[in-house]
Amino acid sequence: MEAADTPRVGAAVRRRRRALGLTLAEVARRSGLSSPFLSQIENDRARPGLRSLQRIADALGTTAVRLLAASAEARTVDVVRAGDDGGLDRAARVRPVVRGRHQLHALEFTGAHEADREFRHRHDELMYVADGAVEVEADGRVHRLGPGDTLLLSGGVRHRWRTTDPRSRVLVVAIGDHVEVGES
After folding, report:
1. Tens of pLDDT along 66-98?
2. Which residue of 80, 127, 142, 159 has the lowest C-beta tally within 10 Å?
3. Which domains does the chain have, with CATH numbers?
């Protein structure tokens, strides 16, 4: 990915923080990250990894995907190449496959992912397993998915998921607005 294409999440983080009337120190306390690191992110002198971005998003009452989307302009036609990491560090093993400010969000997850977070979306969400295996806990049931399987979750259903095969590749597609993230 060329530097010009790398999303700069700093402005999106700063806008969200200011809209909530929070100081850097308050976001640092909520996220467990240092104020100097947050300042570097806001000034685009540092690029957070996915875990740090999720911690910032949680502290700001939003999601990492929404912060990334808010950092990019909407595009009417956009090709995302297989090697494009969407500005996330490659170690995170997740990449946005839709860029810019759009209602539709799609993420590709590869490798091992744990069910350490619970999600509830107001709109429907679709999960497609390209490779490997996934377990999804939703509505009190565990659903096991394999290659080629899809799972549709209606809006409002609390769920969590994890891969059960380190070779897994999973596509998750959802409407990006109104996502509520909960801790386990």
Report:
1. 787 777 666 677 778 887 776 665 666 878 887
2. 142
3. 3-70 (1.10.260.40), 103-183 (2.60.120.10)
